[in-house]
Amino acid sequence: MSSINTFASDNISSACPEVMEALAKANEANSPSYGEDPWTRDLALRLGEIFETPVTVFPVTTGTAANALALSTLTPAFGKIFCHELAHINTDECGAPELFTGGAKLIDMAGANGRITAKVLEETIYGSGNVHHAQPASVSITQACESGTVYSIEEIEAIASVAHSHKLSVHMDGARFANALVTLGVTPAEMTWQAGIDVLSFGGTKNGCLTAEAVVFFKPELVGDFPFLQKRAGQLLSKSRFISSQFMGYLADDVWMRNARQANAMAQRLSKGLADLPGLELAYPTQSNEVFVVMPAALIDRLSANGLAINDEELDGKAVRFVAAWNTTESEVDALLAVLSDHCASI
Amino acid sequence: MSSINTFASDNISSACPEVMEALAKANEANSPSYGEDPWTRDLALRLGEIFETPVTVFPVTTGTAANALALSTLTPAFGKIFCHELAHINTDECGAPELFTGGAKLIDMAGANGRITAKVLEETIYGSGNVHHAQPASVSITQACESGTVYSIEEIEAIASVAHSHKLSVHMDGARFANALVTLGVTPAEMTWQAGIDVLSFGGTKNGCLTAEAVVFFKPELVGDFPFLQKRAGQLLSKSRFISSQFMGYLADDVWMRNARQANAMAQRLSKGLADLPGLELAYPTQSNEVFVVMPAALIDRLSANGLAINDEELDGKAVRFVAAWNTTESEVDALLAVLSDHCASI
Amino acid sequence: MSSINTFASDNISSACPEVMEALAKANEANSPSYGEDPWTRDLALRLGEIFETPVTVFPVTTGTAANALALSTLTPAFGKIFCHELAHINTDECGAPELFTGGAKLIDMAGANGRITAKVLEETIYGSGNVHHAQPASVSITQACESGTVYSIEEIEAIASVAHSHKLSVHMDGARFANALVTLGVTPAEMTWQAGIDVLSFGGTKNGCLTAEAVVFFKPELVGDFPFLQKRAGQLLSKSRFISSQFMGYLADDVWMRNARQANAMAQRLSKGLADLPGLELAYPTQSNEVFVVMPAALIDRLSANGLAINDEELDGKAVRFVAAWNTTESEVDALLAVLSDHCASI
Amino acid sequence: MSSINTFASDNISSACPEVMEALAKANEANSPSYGEDPWTRDLALRLGEIFETPVTVFPVTTGTAANALALSTLTPAFGKIFCHELAHINTDECGAPELFTGGAKLIDMAGANGRITAKVLEETIYGSGNVHHAQPASVSITQACESGTVYSIEEIEAIASVAHSHKLSVHMDGARFANALVTLGVTPAEMTWQAGIDVLSFGGTKNGCLTAEAVVFFKPELVGDFPFLQKRAGQLLSKSRFISSQFMGYLADDVWMRNARQANAMAQRLSKGLADLPGLELAYPTQSNEVFVVMPAALIDRLSANGLAINDEELDGKAVRFVAAWNTTESEVDALLAVLSDHCASI
Lengths: 347, 347, 347, 347
What we know:
The structure is a homotetramer of 347-residue chains.
Chain A: H1 17-26, H2 38-51, E1 56-60, H3 63-74, E2 79-84, H4 88-91, H5 96-101, E3 105-109, H6 118-124, E4 135-142, H7 153-165, E5 169-174, H8 177-184, H9 188-191, E6 199-203, E7 213-217, H10 226-232, H11 241-251, H12 255-276, E8 281-282, E9 290-294, H13 297-305, E10 319-323, H14 330-345
Parallel strand pairs in A: 2-3, 2-4, 4-5, 5-6
Antiparallel strand pairs in A: 1-7, 6-7, 8-9, 9-10
Helix pairs in contact in A: 1-11, 2-11, 6-7, 8-12, 12-14
């Protein structure tokens, strides 16, 4: 890949060595299947330690599946899921939540910097018990969110409080969970169940795994029919150890935090560099490993002509996204800035 | 795992070295995501060579997903899928075909040794065009089938002929495709599209991969909305190379055939040994890597008490299943036979 | 319609005068909508009297909707519904149960004279708690059944007992409920909840209404989300009084029983007459208002050529169905017998 | 009902005499079922005359079913349906479009007076061909719309033009079709297919029928699998003549237009009267048979205390809805205005 496209997404990155080693080790001998393997059992214990509370864990293969399956346990077919209008579940999953819930409605809300507010949520929830309306059932927030910013603990608490007061469950899409954790400097417990999160999509793929996502339940009473829903969705791997072992490598020692710190630091370096370039403007504050920058159309055209694959997740045609990963280096950041600087200067 | 449980299923086996090497190699550098990587592109070409015709290929993570997605492109929500009563899609996928098709009906048929016949299929198809009836849409056969036997080319041709005469599409569940190929000694083309198969679930997981399945279309006009259905199902991996590279290692040279030959040979060795034991009887001819044996209830109880996990895929409580894999050894077979022989003698 | 086709189905019959009068009366003034009208409230009370227990009642417009909605409250999307292979839900609803349940599987069973047995049901239920299998959830029987015979109270009790012992709910498709009641000479309570029926599709359309079906719950705890499921299915009429008032006319005094007695009596007259004709043979005992007769292919062809619309609900191409309705007369029966007699004689 | 609640909705009104007479006449003798009756056949011809083009017609029982079934033929399970945020399909059908389409997403848009604009539609459609996004498939507008205003022919043409340029189909929810027609003074053809409408939900229930809705296709190639989808949805009546005959009475001579003229005239009388009351303000222009008025909270409370059932379709807690029907009289309007005037004066 050209250096310029190294920032296309964190899903282009390779897996980190610790993950690959754990996988190779898990492959040394035969092992029971369908979640009966030692790695899957250990994963639940390990996540229990990390979250400081017993959790129920289901490994799956994609973030889309994690989100849609989690929501399908919280939301009936005639239910409403409240989310930000830019939420991945709303814009980038081709209807997966609708499929897995059997037809639930996503009720999207505007909100600055990609985040919903408790106030707008409160105003948007209505119709409970009225048979004409799809029924409010769950709220989903993304942490770090799709605009690269991070909900504060207080914001999460306020949203969860509104949700719970209406008997709605709260889901967190944690595709970039570790990146948010690094930014906030809080514990996993503080950012989730202690703030009111009921179910978490815990992502590993973007931060150093090959393919590793997990649905983490903090309340056993919400697990419900998840095992059947997971199997029915084709998300129960026979060789389950190959996701769980990745996670065990990822969560050993400081690996996942180290990866996220590097990605965030490189995003900060890039963000500062971009802000200094003439004609460029950050679309959102840079709070995780994603940087969104508004640039002149002429510059976008120029860059495209030179091989930059402009991600269509860019927002309303204006902000261009650059994403740093666990393996992004300072020299890659500086090389990108140099290219952009050259082009900016010549426009 | 105890030696006795080594034969619980081929999904307890590790991945073979060639697959692990290909995976490690694919991880060396960053790469485009969502199927734009070189491995995914090469996989389509490689399968085109193997099947001697251009194919459209979609890697997915489980056999259940492969089957259900393939069928969902062939079958409307008000459609009928015809299959054997023991078909994996009918008994072991917890409703995945129903989910992904939006509610299609599986019409199951009896048939000796786990295989349907063209004659029974012809008698079972009815109601086309009648608005009261779910509409005949597709046929699915499993090769090698759930009873461990293999459809002959003539049988496949006859079934496909009936199906096509009624304008039904034909799907093959190839979770153990390589094992069947070894048994028949035919080419992949002869066992699929040349015999009338329209879409194939091509399995790698049970025969030496970590997690690698693919939906292979032999007719471009049947692909339809598959890309959207796959994404919606949470089956489009961002790091798509991690399935495709496994397949590339698996399909390089003779690896997949070598793996299947070993599994089949060990199953034959086991089958012959079991047939010689007093009080045991093969439930079906052994034609791939699965052996089904009818044994006295007292023996089953004895074995269970000694740690044998009797697979509940056992058929109507009578036949016990033993499965050989690519890494099963002669000594493991002989050890199992010795244990069984001891127990048989003492009952 | 030609006299010969008067017996095509009981759904070709007009509504009886009492139903039309009740409808006209309900139309005299404006009235609240969506079930808030007096007729809908009275209907629940009236059915409570008839069934000698409080019931929860939801009027709907078709038997297909009644069945599918009732089953959707009893069966999760990954559930199994056990029924006879000839059940209307299995063969004549084009996948409605699958749609409304979100993909449940109908597990069909053979059984003499169109009826399942407790014994076969017991043998067919398996897999509870096993994540690979769709989960046993409900049983549906049709009374009178699709072959025109009637379950005895003892048969219903035995089936319900097996179902409940496995924690399955029991649904009765009562499209011809009144006809069965007349045959058995028992009370509505005895034929339903006292025998173990949990939910009933109570049919009026075939026995003297225009369009009037109702889902009747005998256990409040099973109602669950029905109101939302009904609305979502487009089955909550704004002018709800127009179904409820039909039922109030139908259930006033003896109207519904009178209608069913007439239909059954005419079926008996026809059945006896057919049994006396040379070359004809009853396919099933005549126990309600449907008569199934096996006749030579040459005779079927002759009749078809003379205008008889052979119903494709005929069973496996052999038995021809004749149905008597509330308004069938002796002279119509005798006219049909005369025509058949002539044709039989000339073959 | 108290006079004050006569304006709660047009669905509280009785059926008009011509409809009841047609129904009674259709009940005089037996008739074929499932759409094979003469009334259903005649209905297609009659609507063909009215729309000046051959049409394909499917009678159904509710507007919700008509809308959801129509949209399900135009929209795949992974599709997007574009509509106004106040559209009945979006707010008052408890997820029916999602159920019948298998999970399509409703993309709602703001728009003055309850109507979307071609401009906003153009800006909102994106993502065609991108596998991450649900796919733009159809547009639905309501005529007269949920705010009681009416799209001009030019507005419909502009919306349809944008839709068709993106290969989207256009659906019209015509629950109050006749009312809009009277307002615009155009022909049914001009307001539908000549302006670009592809499929129409043609409502009769609110304007003088008991229960009569129909899906009308203007393009045979769009009918697709509708007959199967209708049956599967429990919307194919066995006694189909009882909807079709209502429509035949409704569409005979000038009945439907006469009914709509009366409703609209009474709404105008009410609207003018309300505008003259102190402290009240019309929320939208009155262009059909619905009047929305903003009134002080104290007045709403007062009216509620005196028996006015404030409809929760009121918009954001401010506008109260009054609906005139075919049988609303001048004296009823004047009586309502007198009551309101008294209360206004005393606040």
